[in-house]
Amino acid sequence: AAPPDAVCTNEGTVIVELVDNGHFRVRGCPKVAADGRIDFREVGETSVSLQSGGVLVSSDLLVDGQQYHVTLATEDPEATYVVTANASEGRIELSNEYVTGAGDVTVELDGDTVLNAGFQPPEAVRGSVVDGNVSVEGDLPGGSIDRAVLDDGSSVRLLDNVTQESGTVSLPVTLSPNGSYSLVLLYGDGSSVFVEVGDGGSSPPASEGTATSEQTEGGLIQSLGGNNVLVGALLTLAVLLGVVVAMLWLTSDDDDDGAANGGATGSRELRVSVIDGYNDSQITGAVTVEATPQKQQTKEGYRLDTSGRTHEITGGTSRIEVPRKPVELEATYNGISTSRTVRLAESDGVQLRFGPVPQTLTVRDEDGEPIPGATVAIVSDGQTHVTRETDEAGRAHFDVSVDATGFEVAVEHDRFESASRHVADPSSFPDSITLAEKTGTLRVRTAIDGEATDAV
């Protein structure tokens, strides 16, 4: 509540302080709902900004060390990314997301929205080509440039060996004085500067120098001439940022590994283990694993290889060769599949876990009516491992190990004939079993005063 002596001249302006875990102190004049509650989504000061590595969310409402459910929605491309992230120093960093301009971030905790905010890409500064270098109008930040991204309208490339001095940026490629380029300078501290170079006209491709580059075919957005230079710059930057982050993901998630193996090209080796989540043990049988480069939203001229390779893991653990980029691993065993995404930074100890396989069996009579109170058992090698009793709907629920093979599902009831089904593996577990009602012959003998009689 507001202090008694507070003068509320601007309702809705407050300061929120975290007193201890789960308790806040509110100072100022919060906006109070009709039922007397304070909507913290309206009083928290929230800042969302784009950086060279992704999106940064800052707010007084974020508790350090708390894990949040974060939804990031972008307009270009139209996509939604969902991730869990821990807050630190009142901030959440969404690193290496494929962000391409304006968007919206929603942060939730236990199903409740903590905050929601939108963001826009940063504005660009102007630059010109002078003696093959880029002269920037205005001040550049101090520090060293880690790398740069250059879009000449026909290709996009990632450049190393980029330096700056007194507002002049030297690139390892030669730019045309009459060309138009979009340039993003990425600094070692994580900051970035967007530069629009030239007059917005068409550009010849930049000549190669000693650059280490990745290039894609085809332009992203054609530059606009005349009074539309600023509009063209902002649109190009919005798209270019997404390509920057994509390239950074492919090249810088694991600097040591990348230096040893030539950056984002070629292949890498993963040690993959397959785990039975039913009892947390390794699966020793042959598990099929398909490795496919992660499918991403693509732009015209920016292509990703989506061809996959199939591997076989035996003995619980094997080493497989995958492309040097984020990959989707899908494992299949006994007719059951599981999958996960492996980032570039993950190079060892990757686990593919098969959770317990949920199964439901319905027991019915010959008229299709459910039979409650039936005993359902999982039997293997003559030994009963699990028993369940059917509910009022005739259903029994089980969690089955993915490694379970060659077992019997046996059903018994005192009013029905027993029945069983052989199950080869979890994928062939029956949905239902029908029981036949017990029948027989009843022989009756009649007597009067102990003497047999022919009829009664």
From TrEMBL:
Arranged from A to Z, the UniProt key words for this protein are: Membrane, Transmembrane, Transmembrane helix
Domain (DUF8135) spans 1-35
TM annotation in the entry? 229-250
Q: Which InterPro entries match?
A: CarboxyPept-like_regulatory (IPR008969), DUF8135 (IPR058448), Ig-like_fold (IPR013783)
Record carries keyword Ribonucleoprotein? no
Q: Name the source's superkingdom.
A: Archaea
SUPFAM superfamilies given in the database record? Carboxypeptidase regulatory domain-like
Q: Would I find 4Fe-4S among this entry's keywords? A: no
What name is this protein filed under? Carboxypeptidase-like regulatory domain-containing protein
UniProt source species: Halolamina salina
List the top taxonomic levels of the source: Archaea, Methanobacteriati, Methanobacteriota, Stenosarchaea group, Halobacteria
